[in-house]
């Protein structure tokens, strides 16, 4: 499996609302067209109204690469920068756990 955690900080409340809408549209495309995307979850952070955290888990690196090539993902990547003040990415290597298996 292949995964990552991403912390997004939106510029302001209006940007956060627009980001949430963009994410909802993107996740719909992921649900419909990405069988190799096992988990793609967007979280709000309690007490931090401008922050969002994504948890993404893919069957393998090829599934992630396929995700990056999708039209809905390219649209998200192109539109998000105007809404954000920062992006932090942590790439994950599974050590142990319980949950979705490929």
Main attributes?
Alpha-Beta Plaits; ABM_dom; 102 residues; 4-stranded antiparallel β-sheet; 3 helices; alpha+beta; Dimeric_a/b-barrel; ABM domain-containing protein
Concise overview:
Helix content is 39%, strand content 37%.
**Which stretches are low in confidence, meaning pLDDT under 50 for 5 or more residues running?**
none
Distance between the termini: 7 Å
**Tell me, what's the shape?**
globular
Q: How many H/I helices? A: 3
> What is the arithmetic mean of pLDDT?
95
The number of domains is 1
Q: What proportion of the residues form beta strands (DSSP E)? A: 35-45%
* Total strands: 4
**Helix and strand run:** EHEEHHE
Strand numbers in spatial order across the main sheet: 2-3-1-4
Proper CATH architecture: 2-Layer Sandwich
Instruction: Give a short account of the largest sheet.
Output: 4 strands, antiparallel
Specify the helix fraction band. 25-40%
Structural class: alpha+beta
Oligomer designation: single chain
